[in-house]
Amino acid sequence: QYRGTDFLEMNLEEILRRKPKLVLVDELAHTNAPGSVHPKRYQDVLQLLEAGIDVYTAINVQHIESRKDSVEKITGITVRETVPDSVLERANGIELIDITPSGLLKRLREGKVYLDEKAKAAEQNFFKEAPLAALRELALRLTAEKVDNDLKDHSRLHSGKGAWNTNERLMVAVSHSPYSQRLIRSARRFAYNLEAPWIAVNIDMGIALSPSDQNQLSQNLQLARKLGAEIVTVSDVDVTEALQRVARIHNVTQIILGRPTPRFLRDHFFGGTLLDKLIGQSGEFDVHVVRPEGESLPATPFFQKFSVVASWVQYWYVLWVVILVTILGAAAEVPAGFRSIGFFY
């Protein structure tokens, strides 16, 4: 009971006491009622597994942590309950319960998904054919990735090779920006597909953060840790140098960054953005740039349409133009006067 309301929750203690061979657990992403042993149901499942109890469970694709950004973009709905990908990776097998969007909508109208008003509200919001088709593709891709990695694990087991691709190691730069969570999820997906270890690095520049920014940074690092990253924090006033140093120490081959916001003075008079500096100073790493969700390319201001970088050919042309103007000015000095010659330049 919580605040006068009764909640029915899985009795974890009783299951552990009885210790059956197999337990069926629905809604893996469920948030338990206050006062439960664990805040999340997947944590209950992990404890059952540690106790030697097998578990069959169910989860919708929208609740998988690394797919959260994609799901929110498809549906326009904020996903509040997620399960770390590492929980799914522990599964011996995944079975996809597939149905076409039209088939699911038919079941919804027949009252086999929700009843009455809840079914009507669902059809007006989440249950539309286009989002359902995109979510179905997301689930199919996720299942295919799992099968592919299981096959690779089986091949390595029989060939005696190691568990990680030691040729690749990823690093993602994490700050107190809320956008860092999208970078972290992208890094996790890259690492999973490459079967490579990855680290999340935060550069402490000695700048005092507000309580809200510090809390956001803690949430970002906690998310990276939950998704399987190694957390690295270093202090340095030069972010570019610090990232390169950490990358070399940890043998990083690929760095994941967010796309910087264009700023004229910084970009043209102070060495450029972090991305410009990182690419310009080192050719040792591949750099992936992830744009913010929903961001479109900003209109280019008039003064940014002119490039400050020129090739030697352009300088050569300018030199001859100056020489030609000088010759014409010398010829016109007597009839026009030297004061008028200045306008030629």
Structure description:
- The chain starts with 11 loop residues before the first helix and ends with a helix.
- With 345 residues, the protein is of the alpha/beta class.
- It contains 14 helices and 7 strands.
- The chain is 48% helix and 10% strand.
- Helix 8 (180-194) links the parallel strand 3 and strand 4.
- The relative contact order is 0.07.
- The longest helix has 31 residues, at 129-159.
Give a concise summary:
With 345 residues, the protein is α/β, with parallel strands linked by helices. Among the domains are: 165-308, 3-Layer(aba) Sandwich (Rossmann fold); 310-344.
Reconstruct the topology from this structure:
Layout lengths: L11 H7 L3 E4 L15 H10 L3 E4 L10 H8 L9 H5 L11 H9 L6 H9 L4 H31 L10 E4 L6 H15 L3 E7 L6 H16 L3 E6 L3 H11 L4 E5 L5 H6 L4 H8 L4 E5 L21 H25 L1 H4 L4
Parallel strand pairs: 1-2, 3-4, 3-6, 4-5, 6-7
Helix pairs in contact: 10-12
Principal-axis shape: elongated
Assign the structural class, choosing from mainly alpha, mainly beta, alpha/beta, alpha+beta, or little secondary structure: alpha/beta
Please describe the biggest sheet, giving its number of strands, its sense, and whether it closes into a barrel: 5 strands, parallel
Q: With helices defined by DSSP (H or I, 4 residues minimum), what is the helix count?
A: 14
What is the CATH architecture assignment of the domain at 165-308?
A: 3-Layer(aba) Sandwich
Structural Rg: 29 Å
Q: Helix and strand string, N-terminal first?
A: HEHEHHHHHEHEHEHEHHEHH
Gap from first CA to last CA: 86 Å
* CATH domain fold name of the domain at 165-308: Rossmann fold
- State mean pLDDT (0 to 100 scale): 82
Approximately how much helix is present in the residues?
Answer: 40-55%
Instruction: Provide the CATH top-level class of the domain at 165-308.
Output: Alpha Beta
Strand percentage, roughly? Answer: 5-15%
CATH superfamily of the domain at 165-308: HUPs
Largest beta sheet: what is the strand line-up? Answer: 5-4-3-6-7
How many β strands by DSSP? 7
- Poorly predicted residue ranges: 161-165, 295-300, 302-306
